[in-house]
Each structure stands twice: as C-alpha cells, then as structure tokens.
Hints:
35% strand; 4-stranded antiparallel beta sheet; 3 domains; binds zinc ion
Amino acid sequence: METNGKRRVNFILKRKLKFYTKEGLKILGMIGIAFGFVSGMLCAKYKPVYAVTLGNENVGYIDNKEEFEQKVDDLIVNYSSKNVDSVELNKTPSYELKFVDRDEKTNEQEIIIAMQKDVTITYKYYEIALDDEIVDSVDKKEDAENIVNELKTAHEDLNITVNEKVTQNAEEIKTSEMEVAKSNITSIVEENENTIANVEGIKIACLPVTGTITSRYAESSSIRSSNHTGLDIAAPSGTDIQVVADGKVTFASYNGSYGNLVKVEHGNGVETWYAHTSKMYVSVGQEVKAGDIIAAVGSTGNSTGPHLHLEIRINGNHVNPQNYLYN
Ligand SMILES: [Zn+2]
C-alpha cells in the first residue's frame, strides 16, 4: 500500500510539473513576442550609428565604422602623389555606438572632407648639387641617381651630389622633370668646363686674342693723360678678336683715342670693351656668343702699334682684366 501511495504522489507531482512547465513556456513565449514587438517598434523609429568625434567636437554620424576607416585610409592616410611622403591626421577620430532617430542623416562624406583638410603632409624631393651649389631638383630618388650616374660617366671627377629634402611646405618644392633636369645640369657642367674665369657671375669662355702683354692696367704712360684703364695685348694687325662671353653689342664705331671700339654687355652689369681695332664685324644690338669673332686687331685711335686694348667694366667702372684673364 505504501508503494501505491508513493506512486500516486509521484504521479500528481509529475502532472503539476508538466502544468507549470507548460505555463512557463507560455509566459516565455509571450515575453518573446512582446520583446519582438517592442524592438520592432524601436527599429522602426531608431537605427544604430556611430557618432564621430574629432578633437572633442562631434562632427556627425556614420553607418559603418569599418567601411569608414577603410575610406579614411584610402583617401587620406595612404594617399600617394608625387613628393608626398606621409599624411598624418591632425585629429584622430573616436567612435561611439548610438541609437538615433531613423530620420537622422549620416554624413560620412562631409566628415572625410573635413578630415582631409586637417592633415599634416610631409613631402620629399631630391636636390642635385654641383660643387655644393644646388643646380636643380627632382621628385624621385631614382631620377636623381640616374642623373648623377649618367653625368659621372661622361665627366669623371665631377663633384655632383644628391640631397634628400623633407618639408611640410609644398611651396618650397620646385622640381623639374628628370629629362629637363638632366639637360639643365649637363649644360651647366659643360659651361663650367669651358669657363676660364667668372666676372660677377658672367662666365668667361675664352681669351680675346693671344699675344704679348705690353701695358698693364693702371700703368701710367707718356702717351696717356691718365692711368691705363685696360690691358694691352700686342698681336699682328688683322688678328681675330673673339668676344669673351655671350652678350649683346652696345657700341661699334670710332671713338676718339679708343679708335674703332666695340662694347659688349653680358648682363649683371658686366661689359667688355675692345679698342684700336682695324675692322669691326658686328653692329649695335647684335647678339654674340662667346668665341664669336667680332673685330680684328689694329692700331686706330691713340696707339703706337697693333694691339688690343681690352677693358672689363663692372657697373660702368673699369677693373683690372688680369684679375680674371692673362693671370
Ligand atoms: Zn690700352
């Protein structure tokens, strides 16, 4: 009997448990439905976004953080253009997940534009120097090395170097295309090789005549009223006179004691004068190149025999030609 009684109690307990479980599931189901309903309502009204903050300033909302960060990388940080070495955001963005009204607009594009404007860009370029004097610059290291190697092959012992320049000031960059830089530097190298003297930056490429110096600058002489303003170089009459540097003829006629006088201006206030000539082959306004034959040695004007009287003038004042030539 005892066993029967126990069984019955067990049976009742089991039934009760079944009942409570059923009820419990019913309640859970109802809670689930209610939750679904409420969240459905909330989703219809609100959406999740990321609020973006730039240096304590809320600048707006974005939908997708990963996508946004990828765009920031692609459009700003990894932006590569010539000379750009690195781009750094001045303000690092921070993100906060938020639920906002569905009607609230996200403004990813605007935020990116604002971030693009607030960056520190570091640029790199390469200066090329001849004897430590910068002659040109290029954008890429390979271009600079290419120029240096080519010039060193053609001109041994050339003191040509490359300096890497880093700047945050884009205005500072005045680079040339590689081929342009190469040809610029080549002509400077060739000009330097052909330069025998430099007067105020004007490159003197040749002597006007070869001959014997018969009177030096500033010497006094019985045939002159004042000290000598040039250098006399004796040579046979008719000997070619070469202009010593590129320039423009400013005077070519008979001028008292100078006789037939040719004056050439070279820029930077530098002029050269060729006096006592027997013939003049140029006229005023003519452009001349260093080495051009402009006149012939003679003895016109105040002269005791065929010679070239050479003057170098800087801003109108005669200087000693032997400071530069025939020294
Ligand atoms: Zn003289």
